[in-house]
């Protein structure tokens, strides 16, 4: 398993030099953030980013994420041109030596939380999702703003977009995902890129919008849509783990044995009620997931791909992008290092 860290490019306040000092850190997972969704990522920009990262002594072989334009998820006639742009981006990424591309297929909203700085009992702050609170939220009224949301939406444009989804069923969304994958996976395969879909976060429908990548059965359906070594998964333990019915070690063993896991996010989550959770520290006893069993499952199936410690809490007075501070993610990294060393030595 190769440890990476998410970095938001030159605008990220964390220096690459700091990230490199985390024990075991090998690489960066990042993206081109200043090209509008749907347009082609120019090769020069990708090469520049790669050079910056490599100059800091880190590898750059995974992208998170190349976003999918809403017209593709909606299945609008404009999708063919947008898919061709997506393929051109994949070709450029292949030329730059990128091996894994993460994406997701969540309508309108990316990962969603009810609170970004909820204070935990030890004084740290974490992202939480409280179902009661979210049920009362109305995104069109603009009474909330969350990371992951495209802040360029005005209230009007958001309403228009959500209206377009109002009649869409989950099966419609599956059909549009299949159309997309049938067009991009052959291009990814030729360019030796592994596509990794990130599960929906949280793994249930929100604000009346369909969500489909939520559980083992849906991951199975996804990998069967297109039979190719390039069509696979980003297992996010915290996203899938927000549903107590998802058995994460079992999911890892099942898809790991099929070589369908192309990237992994490792974090813990604590269930606090029906459809409610807190993002906990990585340590098993702080959340509802068994992190030892999770890391062991990856090791048992011989997973050798990239992973990253996912969202951390804000600790030690750090401020910054919620979930993406340095300190707690670094603690997560060294904890995973410890688990891996113990698991490997135990097998000798
Ligand atoms: Mn994730």
Biggest β-sheet strands, sense, barrel: 8 strands, parallel, barrel
Proportion of residues in extended strands:
15-25%
Number of helices: 12
Helix-strand sequence: EHEHEHHEEEHHHEHEHHEEEHEH
Each distinct ligand: manganese (II) ion
Which fold name corresponds to the CATH topology?
TIM Barrel
How many β-strand runs?
12
| Rg for CA atoms | 19 Å
Structural class, by secondary structure, is alpha/beta
Taking the alpha carbons of the first and last residues, their distance comes to 18 Å
Gist of the model:
By secondary structure, the chain is α/β, with parallel strands linked by helices. It has one domain: TIM Barrel. Strands 1-2-3-4-7-8-9-12 form an 8-stranded parallel barrel, surrounded by 5 helices. A 4-stranded antiparallel β-sheet has the order 5-6-11-10.
SSE order and pairing:
Elements (H helix, E strand, L loop, with lengths): L1 E5 L9 H5 L6 E4 L12 H13 L3 E6 L5 H5 L4 H17 L4 E4 L11 E5 L5 E5 L1 H6 L18 H10 L5 H21 L3 E4 L18 H10 L5 E6 H5 L6 H10 L3 E6 L3 E4 L2 E3 L12 H10 L5 E4 L17 H20 L2
Parallel strand pairs: 1-2, 1-12, 2-3, 3-4, 4-7, 7-8, 8-9, 9-12
Antiparallel strand pairs: 5-6, 6-11, 10-11
Helix pairs in contact: 4-7, 10-11, 11-12
Bound molecules: manganese (II) ion.
The site of manganese (II) ion has 5 residues, from loops.
